[in-house]
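User: I'm new to structure prediction. If I give you an amino acid sequence, what do you actually give back? Let's try with this one:
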Amino acid sequence: MGIEDFGGGQTAQADVLVVTTNDVPGYQVTQVIGEVFGLTVRSRHLGSQIGAGLKSMIGGELKGLTRTLVETRNQAMERLVEQARARGANAVLMMRFDVSEAADVGTEVCAYGTAAVISKV
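Assistant: Good question. You get back a string of structure tokens that encode the predicted 3D arrangement of the chain. For your 121 residues, that looks like this:
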């Protein structure tokens, strides 16, 4: 397993820039479109729960669960970008993740931010 199995984020060719900052150096916000979000809910896998339980007794990283969370966050972010693109944005500012339990059957991951149109200064 390489580091690429445990990372996320955008590719360099993204047509919608997603940042966690309020602005982008060298760009100006020409239009604020509004809030956008991407949401996904993942159920727990019995095998991973058993493995996590055993691993918790001896310690160490739960790599299977880490990989699943990365995939879940990436899916939420992809949906965020799709919504921003559909609304005419080329950027999402102040992107954040929110993670919570969903009815005791899974984990809800929401990526949210402010859709905007930005242009080079």
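You can read the tokens as a compact description of the fold. Here is one thing that stands out. The longest strand covers residues 27-43.
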